[in-house]
Records
---
Amino acid sequence: MLILHRRVQLLQMTLVDCTREKFSKYEQLLNDAGQKPEFWDVVVITARDDSQKSIFDYQISLKKQRHEVPSFVKYIVISDPPGVKVGSGGSTLHCLEYLANNFGQHSLSQWKVLIIHAGGFSQRFPSQSVLGKVFLTLPCSKYPIQMLEALLMMYISIPGKMNYGVFIAASDVIFLFNEKGNWDFRVPGFVAIAHPASLKLAKNHGVFILEDMISPWGKYRSDPSSPAMVATPKCFLHKQTAEVLKHKGAVIPDSDLVYVDLAFYFDVPTALKLIQFYAGVKPLKCELEAYADFLQPLGSASSVDYYEQSSYPEKARVQQKLFGILNGTPFKVVIFHEAQFNHLGTISEYLHHICGNATLRSAYQFANHHGTEYGDAERLDCSLIHSVLGERSCIEAGTVIEYCILEEGVSIGRNCLLSNLHVPMNAVIPSNTFIHTVTLLVQHEVLYATCVFGVNDDLKRTLPRSCAFELEFLNLPLTSVLGIGTSECTTDDLWPANGDCNLWTAKLFPACSSRKQSCEAALLTIAAIKENGLFTFLRGFTVLVSMEDVMVLKTGTSMLDFQLGLQSKMLS
């Protein structure tokens, strides 16, 4: 047991050292005024639509002005085509066509391109719905960074080990890894990145089955000095159950682990084939998934089962055609045996990693109180980012507060996320609460809506109208918190007239004339829930909005101005 504990400690120390080394290299990139280093030529960030694209463009322009990202890189935000959702695969195809049409295939053939998939509503992390999850703030000790910079640091060595081509990455993962070993991406076709992970994690990801499942793991166990190595997959399985993975032979021998996907690269000839394929199938009328639909056709044992068993004929037709294009393309995987996968796609995951993940906190040198004015506030093990805390405030462990003004005497429970707020004097926010203010423009009038949910509320869970009040809001059924039976509340009072119901589309949040009044309304919402009288309380407001409405009425630049104002105050 002591030997195992020591191994874990050594792994943590290794990952911390590797990450800090990447920090140093990234800072050199920012400060290097000499010859252009080997890095990305183009960084593409995908956006849900033109509205999100404009907010992303504005944030990138601010980063370039503040020298937070390398100045020699071309940053391009590309919004998904209008209409049907096309998924990360469709978005990748659209990005490739955009680059070829706007810069020419000759330029594309001489670029190392990083595509970061960042579009979408971020319904599981609504504080990032407006500004985007790729701009999520991380409280590093020297200065807070955002996920964009974290990704550029994380993959800083990849461009120097690849030919011209395209590298695909998610925007909500921080991957700590020891990259020592003999590996690179300078081979034809596809090269993916994998790491050993549990069957529990694998059920929501892709898994590689290797031609030789024994050799990589055995080599690493016998010679840990080379933790990264290249292998040949015989197939790729996507989001399969533990039983299926075991039956298919995906489990690494002498372990209960599998090789799980992280990111992948493809070369220029493959990119050109994909552009030609897209020209023949657009406009897409279905979603394609970059990992599932680009990698499942690959390998000597690839199977057509995934599309032949599909219940969506149009999607199966496109998948079949894509299979024909990609099947037989060379396929390699780089395995990093010493790694830690950290997903920050939900509120609870974010709170855990920022406040409780010791390895990640040490690697990124997270500070508990960065750029924060807090007087004599009582602070436990929480994270405060560019905020003002009044006297006699009390904040419990596991809570993150970013870009907020808290007046005196505020009490905040455990495991909360507060963002963009002006919290009034003596306010009490219970544990496990998410609360976030958004600036709106309603008929040329600036208003504020403070959205409040339970940290574990499922905003995507959808029910038919007949049982909509079974949805849980702040960990309680709507049936009880609305006071139904005394207030005659109907689904039409909270949701649009047609369609199913979920928390994302429920009109639960008053729109108010100031940030502080909006927060007061949210606190009164919490109080009304405790008294089972939420609907009676909400009827007192003229304008009620849902998160869906917020995404239409938002003014992202106003939110950024508030954040930048607090940041400037804290740094002055």
---
Amino acid sequence: MIETLLGLCALSCFFFHFTDSFRGPDGKVYYGFVTPRGLAVFKSGLGVEVPQDERFRMGFVDLVHALMAAMVFAAIALSDHRVTNCLFPGHAKEMDEVMESFPLMVGVVCSGLFLVFPNTRYVRNKGLYSLPVFFSESIPAILVRHLSGKHHGHKKSGFGKGDSIALQVTKQTECTNSPNLNFETHHGGSGSLKDIGDSEAKTFKPCGDTYTDYTPCQDQGRAMTFPRENMIYRERHCPPDEEKLYCLIPAPKGYVAPFPWPKSRDYVPYANVPYKSLTVEKAVQNWVQYEGNVFRFPGGGTQFPQGADKYIDQLASVIPIDNGTVRTALDTGCGVASWGAYLLKKNVLAMSFAPRDSHEAQVQFALERGVPAVIGVLGSIKLPYSSRSFDMAHCSRCLIPWGANDGIYMMEVDRVLRPGGYWVLSGPPINWKNNYQAWQRTKEDLEEEQRKIEEIAELLCWEKVSEKAEIAIWRKRINAELCPRRQDETRINICESANPDDVWYKKMEPCINQYPEVNSPEEFAGGELKPFPERLNAIPPRIASGSVPDISVHSYQEDIKQWKKHVKAYKKINKLLDTGRYRNIMDMNAGLGSFAAAIESPKLWVMNVVPTIAEISTLGVIYERGLIGIYHDWCEAFSTYPRTYDLIHANGVFSLYQNKCKMEDILLEMDRILRPEGAVIFRDDVDVLLRVKKTVSGMRWDTKLVDHEDGPLVPEKILVAVKQYWVGGSTSKKDKE
């Protein structure tokens, strides 16, 4: 079928070059085929004398132009991978090599022949349309496309949905891929840009200054209406639609850009998080100190007042932290995340969480320092992470009752801990005999708590590998073959759910998730990972085993190539992308994590979000690559404070959520979590981006629409945006203008 269609199209290109027209005495235009004897009109017997001019006779030039038309059509048609895959299945690599040069050759040859053999025949179209127009548009398009390295390899090249809109947009955008946006931090608006379309966009007003630190799903007032049992009131409780805010969250007065990393690890501007309570409550523990107009973080913690470095060195004497074996870590009840901050020196990436509670702004401090963290709690709901994600989990006096509720919290840690992973418990009740008085608890109470923890750890098949001073370390065994008691132990309740990654708003249960099956006692259940950074682009075990639907080894490798290409294009648009200007980055629809892998650097980290409505759950793959991420539904607010991300990447987010929730809800949430003068990169179909562009023009964002890196005919476009600088009680530069 495709061969027939292409053949008919090629023949039409060829034969239409043997048509011409003339205007008769009656003023009408008559069309016909040129022949060696002259023009043969389409309809005979019209009573109009046909001109006998030499120009209406077929000649050598007509044949040249007909052949050129067929060649140009072939070059354009074969530039679409869908056509070549259909015509030449199994030869994608060879066709890639051929199409590197074939279109360029056609463009050069046809351009030269057209200059040597010009033609001005008039064919049937809308009025009189000169054939040179066809060549003047199509041949340079081929040359530009291929001289800039944009050939048929991209999956969305060719014609498709939105092309007519894409062409219109192309006329309204600059030819260059360098938008006139200012990505520097200077605490002022960066100028206005015209929006596409004539209708006026809705203008969103600022919220009141009392909403400066508003967290919609962890609102303190709403939280107090829920039960305190099992920390339910500290979990996510999002507002219903009628209570949502449709205004812009203001930054506090005096807000400034955070210090660049690594200075940000130790210093945070007071104006950004103006809360001194932790400097008083945790003064002895060396968490944070107030000095002038900044907070200083000496690196201390409740269990390591002398500094996180020495504490981590103690752990490294037992756990292989230094060689890349341990890459991802979970810090439960993280405080200001000093443990995670100092682990970054070891190239270990920690996902830290703590509730929004009386310790005001601890997660906000962590993110201001440039350390990954979210608002969260071990309560009654499963953690929003995939199973077998973390190489290490950590609790440093995190106040979680590990032995309570039949060990349900340790069982949840077991679910997210990778086979062979480590669990660190630092503080009560470890070494209770020497510390019960300082902890102001009875010997009996602490002894019973430790007994329960030891008992649950044994049921989970964790091996205690160290207990020194107040630090105990367990290791999860690498497979079920090493847990013979599990087969006979009547107290063990195996989880019935076949999908341990189905966690969004699901209640925790006092049950143990099964290990993946192995063939020998030496094999790691679920697959052994390579040390980082080798694991970043190695084949993840979930993909190698075929356990991720519709994702093969080949498609995974192609995804890596594709995102390297995309990120290269992003860096041409925003030259500050990997300079350290953007520390905290979010990918709202992370897929396989290849965007994060392509920009991986010690200067930045990426929160890879896998939408709960995504067709395929890929968060486990992301963690197997040594990256971090979280499940989330973008119809709700994210579990973070305002102004916590420097750059947001939104690939296909609005196409994914079409008809699921309102576009402005998602965009207002992006505005809430984006820092002033932060940037956004949208990638989506052009018709979707035009609606996004119109909406954000009423949100104090400056935007620019940029063509896809494969050229203007690709309906997928890139929209780049910069949030203007403004603070509570003020107006932005654009508003003043």
---
Amino acid sequence: KPAKRMWLSHSGSKGSARTVSMITISESDNWEICSSSGMKYGQFVDWEKIDPEPAKKYQQILKSGHQQLKRMGREGFWAISHTLRAKAYYHIIHNINSSNCRAVTPNRDVYYDLAKKLFGEQKVSTHQVPDYMEDGDIPRYCLNKAGMNSVKKILICLGSYFPDMSYCPILPALVSLILHFSEDEAECFYSVSRLICYKDPNKRYIDQTFLTYRASCMTFGDLANRCCRGIRKLIASSHQNLFEFYSDWIMWIFADLPFTYAIRVLDVYLLEGFKVLFRVALALLDLYKVSVSSRVADVEDFRTDMKRFVQSVARHCTVEKLLERAFQIPIATRNELNLLFNANKDALMQKGVSTHQKRQTVESVDLNSFSSSVVTETEMRVIWAWIPERFALFNPVRLFHIAEDGRDLSSLYKRVEGHEPIVLIIKTMEEEVFGAFLSTDLMERRNHDSQGLTYFGTGECFVFTLRPSMERYQRAMVNIMTRIASPQQHRDGSSSASQLANREVCQLTKTVSCTNGTPQNPSYLTLPLSAPVGNPRTAKEAKRPKEQDASNFIAGDDSQLIVGGDGGHALCLCDNLEEGNSELCDTFSSNPLCKGHFQIQSLEVWGIQNSIYLSRSFHSR
């Protein structure tokens, strides 16, 4: 690890009591580095004669298109030989689409000039750790002393050439890995620079600011919420910080994975970009969930425990099985992931995180003073762990309480309209507690000129139970920006009415329709993030759900409020807020949230702090 030094002002006098990390470059190690230090046989050997089989494979690589290379990378085609992998990396990186890179990508000569300027002819020189690094730690993997010295030099040169790169904790590991397969320092510098310069947002490689890094962490959290059900509830129930737990996700890959695993991930990452990292981290989290479920009581810190698990992942899974598991996860398109990433970035900016600042503290939600007549603090932590990450940044605000605002649906509408999203929580006379997360402003019910009720909302809606058991029900899609449901088959809303008609309340005899026309807004987002429970799919079998499948999310008028309308209502409330009904619902693949018909003991609606501002921001695009 680098030494810690007291910061000195330019005049040489002591400045403020701030310590910075320093890196020492020792040129005395350079005799170990030759122009072919990354090659197995060196520059004087015809490797095709020594290794004819890898040589044939390399010719196949040169003749293959991008899709073929993706398949080869996933299958470990060039993993049989260090030299073959080095040549494959060179071919892949040098063929990254130049039109998606910045105007000028530094070449080998740029590195030589930078190195001469920064290190000169000195045998030993000391430099401050680049600002973009989290700390001075550099994964060694299989590098020798000379290799570690070269990594330090490359990292310092990258910091000098890319001054706007203010936060990039994965770069030390990435440089270290690529140097294993580079001809020399200049080639490694060039290769990493190509990845840094790549500008296509739908296939990005490296986050370069704290803002984008945190937005990626939140995006991973949203994916984990869908694909690894149960882990969020587990961590939230222990009162540990979910936001901080997910902030480590990319370091599981670029700091904690053993070398043989990390390079197999690198094989596909260079071809497929950031999306692969999401897949691998989700697979690791899924494995961890199985491992930790039997020893939850013994885990004091989930972040540390997860780090140790990844470091020893070989005990639980081979690298081939890990990648197979990763690519069996039905995940969104790059374009859809980018929409989610941008929504999370907007929320962080509204939280005060700026583009230009470096490391910043993101204030976590404070539930210590939380008070409710329906749910406990722990139960509210679980709900907040279930909702999308960009909303979970903000504190809950109570908008409606039946004891204070009365048993009247019109009063509920009046109190909650203009707020998006909201959480509806109900306690029955039988002490059952359940509810719904509604992603769209209930004012939307007024915006459609059609006879009868009109469904609206997005796939981020879900329903849940808290007592007697905790469970969240949500279909495997999420329409982040879209307020209007996609075209649906008409459904008669009399199913719930059949159980309540004799009581002459909640007469659901009106026809429930949906708006006509498929949304053409480019922000429309459908994410098939997980296969239905009980019907696991392989990567080849994974199919994206059709737009018309189960998207009747919310409907309401002065006489009723309905959540879920496919196959049955997940929740139906009457105008007097005295009673309601819950049944099997295909919209969320949900069981009845209670015993069926229920009498309401208490009801609360919670909003998100700054939710009006959030709503306007996300839907003004």
